[in-house]
Amino acid sequence: EAQVTQNPRYLITVTGKKLTVTCSQNMNHEYMSWYRQDPGLGLRQIYYSMNVEVTDKGDVPEGYKVSRKEKRNFPLILESPSPNQTSLYFCASTRERRPGPYGYTFGSGTRLTVV
Amino acid sequence: DQQVKQNSPSLSVQEGRISILNCDYTNSMFDYFLWYKKYPAEGPTFLISISSIKDKNEDGRFTVFLNKSAKHLSLHIVPSQPGDSAVYFCAASVSGNNRKLIWGLGTSLAVNP
């Protein structure tokens, strides 16, 4: 089954403790992206990657890192999480040069709480 | 400043009737508009898209209409089914190398049996 897999689904952590949210896709997509979803703010892009070893900042990159060493994996790294990073995170991928007409395939989300 | 606006946070319709979800945008540079459906505890699922050079696209029960002069698009679901109950997001694609989507805040649709 074609899918984007994120882990973990739920995570509660403490301020300052480094964590990684994994994302893997099995569709050989070149383009991958991370979004966070917050009430009243919608989905905002954190980072994106157009191919292996090619990453760039989205709209809200502060406090996050990413890497793209393999085509299928695009982990999101929080070196020193803070409470304002409490959010719902989505990983997405697409084969297309543009999101339309086929859109992105999204993972099921990671609910992160930083206390 | 929200470039993509869904002004109705919620909508309730009867099963079998038409559901109309609306979306307004401000940026004339958007090249594609997309609709996603989201169930609780799942990621958004792509539904249908429309190019900015078209005014209508249809896929089964789902039709999207684009009115460029009014910077308005709408998603019509006919007939509505209880399984359509979900949050619907309108998103717009920005021309350029970053295949970023600009998202609306969503409209929660409830289809009542």
Uncertain stretches of 5 or more adjacent residues of chain B: none
Helix content of chain A: under 10%
- Greatest chain-chain interface? A-B, 31 and 27 residues
Q: Which residue ranges of chain A are poorly predicted, with pLDDT under 50 across at least 5 consecutive positions?
A: none
Q: What is the ordering of alpha helices and beta strands of chain A?
A: EEEEEEEEEEE
Q: Structural class given helices, strands, pairing of chain A?
A: mainly beta
Order of SSEs of chain B: EEEEEEEEEEE
Largest sheet of chain A: 7 strands, mixed
* Global geometry of chain B: globular
Label the structural class of chain B: mainly beta
Helical percent range of chain B?
Answer: under 10%
Oligomeric grouping of the chains: heterodimer
**Proportion of strand residues of chain B:** over 45%
Key features of this structure:
A: 115 residues, mainly beta, 7-stranded mixed sheet, B: 113 residues, 6-stranded mixed sheet, 5-stranded antiparallel sheet
Describe the structure.
With 115 residues, chain A is mostly beta strands. Chain A is 0% helix and 50% strand. Chain A has no helices and eleven strands. In chain A, strands 2, 4, 5, 6, 9, 10 and 11 form a seven-stranded mixed β-sheet that branches. A four-stranded antiparallel β-sheet of chain A has the order 1-3-8-7, with no helix packed on it. The mean pLDDT of chain A is 93. Chain B is mostly beta strands. In chain B, the strands form two sheets. In chain B, strands 2, 4, 5, 9, 10 and 11 form a six-stranded mixed β-sheet that branches. Chain B has a five-stranded antiparallel β-sheet with strand order 1-3-8-7-6, with no helix packed on it. The radius of gyration of chain B is 13 Å and the shape is globular. The mean pLDDT of chain B is 93. The chains are: A mainly beta (115), B mainly beta (113). Chains A and B meet through strand 5, strand 9 and strand 10 of A and strand 4, strand 5 and strand 9 of B.
